[in-house]
Amino acid sequence: MISAGPSGGLIRRAALVAAACLLASACNRGILEPVGPVGQAEKTIMINSTAIMLAIIIPTMLATIGIAWWFRRGNTKATYMPDWEYSGAIEMVVWAIPALTIMLLGGIAWIGSHDLEPSKPLPGTSPALKVEVVSLDWKWLFIYPDQGIATVNQLVVPAGTPVSFRLTSATVWNSFFVPQMGTMIYTMPRMTTRLNLQADKPGSYNGLSSHFSGDGFPGMQFQVQALPPEQFAMWAQGARGQGTPLDGRGYAELSKPSSYVKPMIYGAVAPGLFDAIVANRTPSNPVPTPQHNRPVPGSKA
Amino acid sequence: MFGKLTWSAIPFDQPIPLITSIVMLLVIAAVAVWVWRNGWWPHIWNEYITSTDHKHIGIMYIVLALVMLVRGFADAIMMRAQQSLAVGASQGYLPPEHYNQIFSAHGTIMIFFMAMPIVIGMMNFVVPLQLGVRDVAFPTMNNVSFWLTASGALLVNVSLFVGEFARTGWLGFPPLSEKAFSPGVGVDYYLVALQISGVGTVLTAVNFVTTILKTRAPGMSYLRMPVFCWTALASNLIMLAAFPVLTVALAELMLDRYLGFHFFTNDGGGNSMLYMNLIWVWGHPEVYILVLPAFGIYSEVASTFSGKPLFGYRSMVFATLAICIISYMVWLHHFFTMGAGADINAVFGIASMIIGIPTGVKIYNWLFTMYGGRVRFTVPMYYLIGFMLTFVVGGLTGVLLAIPPVDFVVHNSLFLVAHFHQVIIGGVVFAVMAGYTYWFPKAFGFTLDERLGKAVFWCWFIGFHLAFMPLYVLGFWGATRRMQHIPDPTWQPWLNVAFVGAVIIGLGIVLTVVQLLYSIKTRDQRRDVTGDPWDGRTLEWLTLSPPPHYNFAVLPDVHGEEAYWTRKQTAIKQDQLIEEPDYQPIEMPVNSPTGIIVAFFASLCGFAIIWYIWWLAILGLIGAFAVFVWYAWRDEHEHIIPVEEVRANARERRRIRMEHLHELSQST
């Protein structure tokens, strides 16, 4: 296991929030309690579609039981029609019912697919925060290219601000998933996927890998901390320059297989690390000196 | 000399696989000795192992499937136990490297060596009888198909004792299954076993497509075939087209692993998305390979036990073929979360939903088959109704998964696991249990105990719902699949309920064995002397139970959709059978040990490839090929059943039928 690097009080506070949340784990009820626009829209589609189908399915189930029971052999009141095997009118109805249902649901699927396409930027007043996600064996690396910092197994985002992810994997496939925020997406080696999510309110949310990736797979849990924008800016500034830098050597150390890794922070990141990983190159760029006065996108500070 | 194989391949330090293997070996040895001491070996060798009789090959498939069901179920209950125990601070009793083998083996065994053989076994037994013919088009090849399937099953089970099985899930996704990430022999076991059994499956498909298209009783036009034959045709057409894709995908992965190719590797220009596409181009149609014959069984059961022809026969045939074709156009719904884009996701989502239309039609047609009938609540009918209630919910969750934005949050979750178990258990397992009960008297001449059969049904029905409904809930909570350790303790109560459900299913499996033993013991009270125990409608009920090797003394003349029913009604009305035909001697194919010898060499070759024992691999390959050559140069193809024997059997059959006819005429 890799131990957490030296980190400020903010990390400890965040850890406390996470622990409190785990204890009262009612605050993490997955996709049924979405905290952002994407998850909210997906939940609505799911509930609407279920309702449409139940309207057909419940009567069908009742009819199955009712017809089977009424036409039981012992029931002398039931009419026996030993040769009845065709009725054009009924045929039309039985093709029409599922066909119409599917036309309706197909419309929902078409519109939903386009509205909720993962790569589509979310509307928002503030510019999106950029995060680059790398799945490693078996932990998550989150790079903040504009802030010049990186975290492991802990994703800190400003609440109410869209987050624009680019994702890849350094080894095998994984899937990045924060159930309460919505849409999951594969992380694939040598390829980049895109995802846009947002957490509307501050809080701590569970994240995980939802595609099996080997022995350490169940240890790929991470926490998402959605902080108020000002706090996020403070956190990002406080993190800068802290701990070890994520350069070629740091990355080589990090990419050794490990699981159930505690959250940690890199106060500096070699530029172009994400693209180097996608291209399967060893990152060689030097780590820049931290510039504390750079504006932080996604924060109002 | 022995490649990578050393003593360290035997898991001396792991008690679970070691003890299981030893017990398995002891059971096999005990059965072999028991059979030998009773002097049954010649019978088993002549009537089953080397048999070219489609009925006996079908029975062997089903026996293989039931044995593999026990193995696959053992994996399932171990997984459920682990997930109930390994919560929070506890790591349970299975370390990841063992747990990951178990879920991979569970999926592989249940699909390839349980579901496939049991469905193919039913088709083997029933299709030629229903078509009114004496055998499949290529009887020896049929035997070879079975033994190649058994060879694959053998290799998967050998992995328990020698080496390890894959830890990559039942579809072996690269790059995880590439040498770089899975250097052990586990993935090789998986690949080689599936390649060998895949050859068997393709040969089966060739055989059955030919049989159904080319050999039917006189007068049996396509639109007079029983619906089960239609579904078997559709299923085999899919097999014929889909399995080669699997073979190619697995062959490419083998080239990567063995010869350093770069089809799916991370480096050298490989692309793992290609494998994902190929495997699902096979994998989705595979679902329909299994479920279409299941629909066929339900159609037979619904019609027979409602005492009515199937409602909307042509609609059913059309729906079957529609599913057969559309099943190829939906594979991408297995990876909406790959980020392929809104248009692609939407098109494949809608295509997947369209399959719901013909499937829905089928549900309504079974409903209207019962309408106006005289429904007899026998065991197969319990399964039909249980299926209709379970499957519509599975259909609902399936359509949800086909809506891309919904799939984005439930993909790969326990919701998905619950969904596909709901359609496979509720659809396929219920169907084969119905078919097993329905056709058992035809195969063995006596019925299965009804009371125990209903107990088995309730175990499956209640056990299934207890085992999988909690997984839907956990899926909503964001629980994903294949977790050796459960991070959230609040999931535990639901996982415990699922474990109880699995135990109840296990009780159902035990009761199935009890039912079989009890029915054998009391077989004299439950003899089927008429050959028609359920008042059936299709041609398999025309002949004796069990049927003679040649099925029919004279191929039946078919008039109308329900060949046997029409004939039976005419006979009842006139109170006499059709005029006695002019019997002829019958030519039947001879037995052949080709299948088992080929499978022996194939298993050797496969084992050698897995362990890099190249001389043995070459030897096995040459051996298998030599057997084919030897078979091709055979002198004797058929043996003649003399006309006296045919006539004597047929007269006896007519006498029984006549008695039965008088009973029927008096009762109506």
Describe this structure in words.
The complex is a heterodimer of chains A (301) and B (668). With 301 residues, chain A is an alpha+beta fold. Chain A has two domains: 9-16 and 120-278, Immunoglobulin-like, CATH 2.60.40.420; 37-115, Helix Hairpins (Orthogonal Bundle). Chain A has helices spanning 9-23, 37-70, 88-115, 229-239, 248-254, 273-278, and strands at residues 129-136, 139-144, 149-152, 154-158, 163-169, 174-178, 182-187, 193-197, 203-209, 222-227, 264-266. In chain A, the strands form two sheets. A six-stranded mixed sheet of chain A has the order 8-5-1-2-3-11. In chain A, strands 4-10-9-6-7 form a five-stranded mixed sheet. In chain A, strand 6 (174-178) and strand 7 form a beta hairpin. In chain A, helix 2 runs antiparallel to helix 3 (88-115). Mean pLDDT of chain A is 88; it is low at 1-11, 14-27 and 291-301. By secondary structure, chain B is mainly α. Chain B has a single domain, classed as Cytochrome C Oxidase, Chain A (Up-down Bundle). Helix content of chain B is 68%, strand content 1%. Chain B has 19 helices and two strands. Chain B has helices at residues 15-37, 41-49, 54-85, 96-131, 139-161, 186-214, 227-259, 272-306, 313-326, 342-370, 379-402, 404-410, 414-444, 450-476, 492-521, 563-574, 594-610, 614-632, 643-667, and strands at residues 586-589, 638-641. Chain B has a two-stranded antiparallel ribbon. In chain B, helix 7 (227-259) runs antiparallel to helix 8. The relative contact order of chain B is 0.10. Classes of the chains: A alpha+beta (301), B mainly alpha (668). Chains A and B meet through helix 2, helix 3, strand 7, strand 8 and strand 9 of A and helix 4, helix 8, helix 10, helix 11 and helix 12 of B.
